[in-house]
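Anyone have C-alpha cells for DUF4507 domain containing protein? Sequence:
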Amino acid sequence: MVIITLVFCQVPMGDIRQSLLPRDVLSAAKELLYHLDIYICNLVQSGRQPPQVDAKTLELVEEFILHAPKDRNTPGRRMSALQELQLLEIMCSCFQEQSRDTVRQLMFSALFSLQGNQADESRMALLGKLVSMAVAVGRNPILECAATWLQRTHRVYCVRLAQVLVDDYCSMVPGSVPTLQNIHGASPRFCCQFITAVTTLYDLTSEELTPPLELLQMIVSWIQDDPRLVLITFLNTPLSGSQPISSLDITPLGGLMRWCVKAPLAYRREKKQALTNGSAENEQEAGPLLSALHLSVLQVFMLLPNILNEKGLFGRLALLQLESLAALTSDLSRLLDQADKHTHTSSADTQALSQLTLDRLAQALQVAMANGALLCSREDLRAICSRLPHNNLLQLVLSGPVMYYNNIHTPPLAFSPHAAHSPIASHPTHPAHTPHTPLATHPSSHPQYPGQPFITGMPFPFRPSH
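Reply: yep, here.
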C-alpha cells in the first residue's frame, strides 16, 4: 500500500485522467474512488493543516463520478440504473472499510461539498441515493459524514436531502418507516440533524409542508426515548468558529416548538382537504402526538440549565433565536385571522383551538426563558407578541417577571448560530439584575392548568392540554 501511495502521488492528475478515459463509465468511477482514497490518506499523513483536496482532483470527481461534461463540446457520460446501483454499493463499501474518520470526512467532502456549479445537481442526486442506501443497509460511517455535511451546508440543500429520505421511507414504500427509525441508534448525530432539517422543511404553511403522520410519530418516539437527542449537535459543536446564518439551526428546538404551537390551527385549516382525501383520521391522530411532542420539548428545555452551566453558557447563548420567534408569532397572527373566517368548524371549536395554540406558545416561552433557552427583555417579548389576540396565560408571561442572568451583559459567543442578530447583541448594556422570583401561579379561570409555579429545576407539573 505504501508503494502504491508513493507512486500515485508522483503521477500528474492529467495522466490519471488519460488512464480513466478509455474505461467504461462504472470502471472509471470505481478506479477514481480507489485513487481518491489513496490520495486523501497521503494528504492526511503529510500533516498539512488544514488538509485540502486540490481543484484538479475535484474536477476528476465531477467528470468521472458525477459525469459533468469536461466542456460544452463533450457530451456527459451517463450510467444505467444498474451501474448507478453498483456504484452506490462500491461507495458504501469504500466508506465502511476506511477506518479513519478524518479520511472519510475529507472524501465525503470531495464528493459532495457544493461548488456552486452545474455539477451540484448531480451531487445532490447522488448524495440523496447514497444516504438513502446507507439508511437501508446500515452504513453508519456514511451517516456520520452526512451529519457533518448537514451541519456545514446551506439549509436549502439540507432540506432537499431530508425530503429525499421522507419520500423514500415515509411515502413511497409502505411499511419502511422502521428502517429510517433505526438511525436513532445507528447515528444519533445524523438523527439530530435530520430532525432539524425536517422541522425546517415542514413549516406547516400549507398541506404539502405539513409533516406526514408517520414522520411525526417517529420523531415523537425518538425524543420521548432520548430527550437529549435534540441537543447532540449543540453538545458536539466546538465553541470556536461561527455558525453560518444560512445553515441549519444548532438544535431543532425552534422548529419543534413551531410544530407544537402552529399545529392545532394548521391541521384544522387542512380539514377540508383531509376530508376530501379521506384522511380525516390522520388529523385526529396528530393531535395527541403533537401534545406529547409539546411536553417533550418543554422537558428538553428543563434539561438546559445544568448543560449550559457546565459549559459556562447560561445567560450567554440563546438556543431559540428572537428572529425565529418573531416569524412564528407573525404566522400565528395570520392563522388566527384565518381561523376566525373558517366555515368548517363551530365558533366554539375555533376559539378552543385558538386558545390552545396561544396556551402552548405561552408555556413554551415561559419554560424557555426560565431555563436559559431564550434571552430577551420583556419589552422585546411584548413587541413580538403584540399582534396576537388576548390570552390569559400569555398575558401572564408577558406581564410577569422576566428572567435575567447575572452575566446577561456578556456578548454572545462567536459560534452562536446568529450571533450578530442575537437578542443579547441587541441589548448589550443591560445591567445585571437580581435573581428572578417565581412567576405567579395560573389563575383559577383555567382549571385545566392547576395553579403551579414555573420554577427552573422542578419537575414539569402537568401535561399540555390535547
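Confidence is low (pLDDT under 50) at residues 1-10, 404-466.
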